[in-house]
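dumping this here before i forget
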Amino acid sequence: VQLQASGGGLVQAGGSLRLSCATSGINFRLYRVAWYRQGPGKQRELVASITSDFDTNYDDSVKGRFTISRDNVRRTVYLQMTSLKPEDTAVYYCNVVHSGRHYWGRGTLVTVSS
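structure:
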């Protein structure tokens, strides 16, 4: 199982970014996929998830600003981030649980300047 996240970068507060996570090694359409993040000095936290039925869930801190989506043909999950805030600065990881084990992408750094 491999996950490759991309799309991070430096953006000013109020700006937008779209993260992508390409997967391989799993029958992607059957899995719930999630985005987590870990800010400086903080624990890793769940940002958003999307099930195989396209049901979505968001942390309260990103509701109304972030949108998770998936493309089962491309086996890719996306995180559209808008109205970014400095507190969104973190390394963002995509995640899937396969056979009881968590798999993580390498992570992509998002830095939001004030």
